[in-house]
Amino acid sequence: MSPTTRLRWRRRLRSLAALLLLAAMAIAVWSVLPEPTEHVPLVHVSDGDSLTVKQGETGVTVRLTGIDAVEYRQDCARSDASRWPCGREARAALVALAGPGPLHCSLGAHDKYRRTLGTCRTAPDAGGIDIAAEMVRRGWAVATGDDYLVEEAEAQAGRRGIWQGDFTRPADWRAAHERPATATGAIPLDR
């Protein structure tokens, strides 16, 4: 191979290495950027993991991702075996966390009930509370993936919320108390 050919190949390899480095840097920057959030007024809290926000002139039901809260009609047992309305208390906890709004939500896909899946915070930056994480930390919901396992362990160790006694996991409770699926998508607002 001639010296000129070797020089060309070295230049090509350097250019390729520089291009790969730029691509890796772009991917790294893209992966740490926060998801775009929407500043949305809170309209209604349905239960411990669902709420309605106003998006434009339409109400959108948002199901908080990564958690499953006890159902509104669900009861739990305390350590002394007495029954208590844990579903109603879970809803009250979400009402207190969300406050009067507005919320800062990253909205995504839809579930089988046509609810919008999303994550919501009380403020747009890291100073805002991740509502789903706090619901799990306070013991009103269980983690459905890896995102909130630490918070679930904290709640369980502290015997907070539903962890203070026996409860049926929300998915199992819903299966035992099945009701027809209803469309809970967009809700026109009279405001």
**Per CATH, which architecture of the largest domain?**
Beta Barrel
Q: Distance N terminus to C terminus?
A: 78 Å
Shape: elongated
What order do the SSEs take from the amino end to the carboxyl end, as H and E? HEEEEEEEHEEHEHEHE
Query: How many domains in all?
Result: 2
β-sheet strand percentage: 25-35%
As a whole number of angstroms, the C-alpha radius of gyration is: 23 Å
Structural class: alpha+beta
Oligomer: single chain
- DSSP, total strands: 12
Under CATH at level 1, the class of the largest domain stands as: Mainly Beta
CATH topology label of the largest domain: OB fold (Dihydrolipoamide Acetyltransferase, E2P)
Mean pLDDT: 84
User: What are the segments in which pLDDT stays under 50 over at least 5 consecutive residues?
Assistant: 183-191
Number of helices: 5
Major beta-sheet overview: 7 strands, mixed
The helix content is: 25-40%
Provide tags for this entry.
OB fold (Dihydrolipoamide Acetyltransferase, E2P); seven-stranded mixed sheet; 35% helix
Task: Please describe the topology of this protein.
Elements: H1 3-32, E1 38-40, E2 42-45, E3 50-55, E4 58-64, E5 67-69, E6 76-78, E7 83-84, H2 86-98, E8 103-110, E9 116-121, H3 131-137, E10 141-143, H4 149-158, E11 165-166, H5 170-176, E12 186-188
Parallel strand pairs: 4-9
Antiparallel strand pairs: 1-8, 2-3, 3-4, 4-12, 5-10, 6-7, 6-11, 8-9
Helix pairs in contact: 3-4
Explain how this protein is built.
The protein has two domains: 1-33; 38-188, OB fold (Dihydrolipoamide Acetyltransferase, E2P) (Beta Barrel), CATH 2.40.50. Strands 1, 2, 3, 4, 8, 9 and 12 form a seven-stranded mixed beta sheet that branches. 35% of the residues lie in helices and 26% in strands. The N and C termini lie far apart (78 Å). The radius of gyration is 23 Å and the shape is elongated. The chain is built from five helices and twelve strands.
